[in-house]
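User: Could you go from structure to sequence for me? I need the amino acid at each position, not a summary. Structure tokens:
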């Protein structure tokens, strides 16, 4: 009877997650639900715990991606805004003095806009990582530090994200003219005495900035879960796993 009741509760929780959570809920809601579920029985299986954690991670990654991919998601957030590349920063004063201030500003904004356009592609990549999560991965996340889930995603998805983001970033910058602006600025710098020309891969620079910002936001979402008193199901999950 107890097992049947647990199954019914878990099934109801799963239905609630997939019907409403992706729109309105955060990780805290999912983990709080898991906490209530765990309180009904001391015989929750590992597979059930992993399933609950996967649902929580799915909600968190969607929220992080949505935050960075909205208009101004990078540019208006000082914590993840992609700054002018170092070589451009060194020449910034000279460029503004030569009347190219508006182009410098447009260049910086366009880099961040390109990152926003690439960001939504991360959702399916994160989902694949979650789908393939093993019990050992779940234990490590539950027993780890504030950013253990973020480190899991970075380890499992970074290369694929980089390969996916870079062509989108390049195409986006080409469409809005940022590549042309960059070339114009570089041509101007080359004519200024004692100024160094820009010698770096622009697509690579913006792609790395986009991914850095995405993982910063993912880490912030994870930290909220672990630090909020309403979301302390993590401790109960550790107890069930018996890994500590």
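Assistant: Here is the amino acid at each position, in order:
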């Amino acid at each position: 009877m107890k097992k049947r009741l647990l199954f019914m509760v878990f099934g109801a929780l799963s239905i609630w997650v997939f019907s409403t959570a992706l729109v309105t809920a955060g990780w805290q809601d999912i983990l709080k639900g898991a906490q209530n579920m765990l309180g009904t029985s001391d015989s929750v299986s590992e597979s059930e715990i992993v399933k609950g954690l996967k649902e929580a991670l799915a909600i968190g990654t969607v929220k992080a991606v949505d935050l960075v991919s909205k208009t101004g998601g990078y540019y208006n957030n000082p914590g993840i805004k992609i700054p002018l590349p170092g070589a451009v920063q060194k020449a910034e004063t000279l460029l503004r003095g030569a009347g190219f201030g508006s182009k410098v500003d447009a260049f910086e904004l366009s880099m961040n806009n390109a990152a926003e356009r690439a960001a939504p592609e991360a959702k399916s990549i994160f989902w694949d990582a979650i789908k393939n999560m093993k019990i050992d991965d779940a234990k490590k996340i539950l027993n780890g530090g504030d950013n253990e889930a973020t480190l899991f995603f970075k380890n499992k998805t970074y290369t694929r994200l980089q390969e996916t983001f870079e062509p989108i970033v390049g195409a986006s910058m080409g469409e809005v003219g940022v590549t042309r602006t960059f070339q114009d600025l570089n041509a101007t710098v080359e004519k200024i005495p004692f100024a160094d020309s820009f010698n770096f891969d622009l697509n690579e620079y913006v792609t790395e900035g986009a991914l850095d910002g995405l993982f910063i936001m993912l880490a912030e979402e994870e930290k909220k879960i672990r630090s909020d008193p309403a979301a302390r199901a993590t401790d109960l999950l550790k107890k069930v796993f018996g890994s500590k």
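One structural detail worth keeping in mind: Residues 1-25, 33-42, 236-244 have pLDDT under 50 and may be disordered.
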